[in-house]
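Pipeline run #58 for the internal structure catalog. This entry was flagged by the ingest filter as a single-chain record with no existing model, so it goes straight to prediction. Upstream metadata was stripped on purpose; only the residue string is passed forward. Reviewer on rotation: M.T. Logging verbosity set to normal.
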Amino acid sequence: MRGKGYFLVISLLVGYYLANQLILSFAIALVWLVVLLIYYQRKRLELIECLVLVVLTLFFSQHFVPDQFDRSEQLNSDVEISGKITAITKQSDQQTTFILRDSASKQLIQINQFSSSSVPLRVGARCQVTGEMNLPTNATNPGQFDFQSYLADQGIDYQINLNQSDQLQCTGTNLVGRLNHLRDQQMNRLDQRMSETSASWIKSLIFGDRSKLDDQIQDLFERWHLTHLLAISGLHVSIIVAILHFICIYLCRLTKETTYQLLITFLLIYPILAGGAPSIWRAALVTICNYLAWYQRDRIISIDFLSLAFVLLLFLKPEWINQLGFQFSFLISFSLLLSKKILGQLKTKFAQMVFISLLCMVMIIPIQVNAFYLFNPISFIINLVVTFYFSSFFIPLIFFGYLVSLLFSPLIVIIEFLINISNQLFISLLQFFDTYFYYPIVTGKLSPLIVTLYYLCLFYLLVQVEKRQFNKVISSFILLIMIIVTNQITPYLSPYGKVTVLDLGQANSLIIELPHRKAVVIYDVGATLANDYTTPTDRAYQQIIKPFLYQAGINKIDAVILSHEDHDHLGSLPYLLEDFTVQTVITSAYFEWPELLLNPLKTGLIEHQRVKTGESFSIGSHDFYSLNPSRDWRNTNDNSLVIETRFADQSWLLTGDISAHVEETIVKNNPQLAIDTLVVAHHGSATSTSQLFLTQIAPNQAIIPVGRNNFFNHPSEIVLNRLTDQGLKIYRTDQDGAIQFIFHKNQRGGTFSTHLP
């Protein structure tokens, strides 16, 4: 199948579609069979080749089906299992995490050890584990990282937490374990001989360990879509192989045959030493195939090598198909190979480098956007410059620095000086651009239709570039821009609105998206405390609020309504003001600003509007009505700004943390008040939601924002019984996750849904 290796890739992908029963999978498989038949009739494929491709499709349609082994009866109970360590994913002073393959079920289980082990853990070790079996945490909000799905994509459905050293006994290792031990020794040696900065860069770019690299640097690289330069990939492998090739041929005077043998051996070992990422194995396997082809004096087309590497890696590690690193690596590699003719038409190295950078960026945009929900267009220029800097100077310097640490210790001081000074200059320049030129486009999650149209249009554009049909190139480029613009304007065309009560744990936040995106309004933007119940954290904002807004394509907040000053209702506001444009903050007349938030007010960065009881205000032509505080209750909870509003002719009452006597005042002052949906006050505390209040307002639904297993034992059984006796439909964030109400601007009523089934 010379030059037809891509057929192997297509066969595998069709098998994957069949295994996962994705949309139109059967139709895609039928089309694939018809295509094979057409190619056979036209004598572009032999009968044996068609049979191999069909068998490959059938094989992978079963190979990608995960093994089902139900351990639900063992959940939250102590179990005893034995097995072999397949990978160690995290090692620190506080925690060690490794993957164990159960000898009985052959199932992968994640083990989290929170105590020090008397014996160092090695890959390949046989272990006996005794501990509590549980499920990994899952996402309870839209846009939130789903750790349970992340592990499931790797074939891991369960985990065991160990808190005592006697819960784990391990013995032995294997070749991979010994190589990992050698890797650990080399990294420890770097820590002893070099400065922290130099050692962290060498460990990142040669050994694939970013744990010691400064968090701010990693965040900076992520913001500018440069993370691929920190992860060892084909670029790093090709540079290292080129340096070793030069050393063997020109310095050591070895023959080409001996050099290739040494490099093949090195490439079989190096991916393990470098952390075993898919991109490293891909680059190593393709390079090995090229060297083996030289031995056979056989010119095999590069795309065949790449296709074989793709199939082989997924045969050995089927779960890699879900990894972003694997997807990025092969998508970029295939696109570059298929664009070989275009590259040949470019006359200068600079033009080729610009084209490669641009092609790599546009090929991964949909995958990148669906992972992070934003895109920074200026990152193209930064990527071009930084990639050139890393490939031509910094990575060779790092590799040379590692060789010096092995062979010429006296030169370490000079190498460290070069690494540190170049690193400081580079990071300073990147921080300058980050400060003045960071203007990301928040795209939200792309629909499958948009992704499909994007790639079809991009493929057509590249074909026209190859044919040098520049009029069609321009038209296809305009079409590509229109597809991107369509995604951005879709929310402004939609007649549907959405109200989302986020699951923040023991904190509150309700986000309103009006039809046609006329306005985005947030009622409370709370935060949780650390485990000591006193230290504020940005965890709720970074893990829940910000991802939710990004996945919805929101980058501007028209108004933030704060019920009162407690941390669980406004603790995330400082972080929100840093990342989003907030036009107005609305509070009650008795709201007192915390010291932390006074600066944005003084500098005029935000507009502050105070409302009194009985006043109404409008945001995006949508009306809100204030029902409390009618006076200063001398209590932050009772001074909560209570809001009544309507969505699709359904009335909602947002209550903050008011208590029963405030509820009594509200119903006395508003005897005609009737509510369809009540957001229950104070997380369902017994101090609120009185029977008199419920009888007066007669709601149909009650939403309780409350944390799981919280310290206060909210919601109160008394309150739950009152709601149940009233015949309400009860939604709880601790049980249902985020709760959403979707409505149409011209229809009465709407639909409630929960993020957890």
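catalog note: Residues 116 and 165 are 6 Å apart (CA to CA).
catalog note: The first strand starts at residue 78 and ends at 91.
status: ready for reviewer M.T.
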